[in-house]
Give the backbone structure.
Amino acid sequence: MAVQLAKAWLDAGIVTKDPDMAHRFYGEALGLPLGEEREIPGYGTVRRYAVGDSVLRVFVPVTEPATEGSRDGFASQTGIRYLTLYVRNLEQVVAEVEASGFRVAVAVRDLRPGVRVAQVEDADGNAVELMEER
């Protein structure tokens, strides 16, 4: 039996140990609107950023994570390794991310005819693919 979706979009969650740097990346450099912030007693705090109809949840656990994800590129380990945002202003977003001091892992380039792409990383090394269709 296939899943019966109650919403037609996907929400994603990222764990961080530095909520200020996460906000600098997602809220300021990418400019995603910060929505609700909710504390989960005994577990941590979730900040919700609007991504169109979807939500990016940035979770800050009460106990700092014991390990960090690989910083050797998005294909260096299994698991959810990148998010894709479709944008209309690719060059400007990449410039803002870089000016904010975050890593541009893949500079703006043509992916295929009519599609350009770049990949940037937040302070925890999570990759965000930025895609622009013409």
Remarks:
- The chain has one domain: 12-64+80-133.
- The first helix runs from residue 19 to 29.
- Residues 29 and 96 are 6 Å apart (CA to CA).
- The two ends are 38 Å apart (CA to CA).
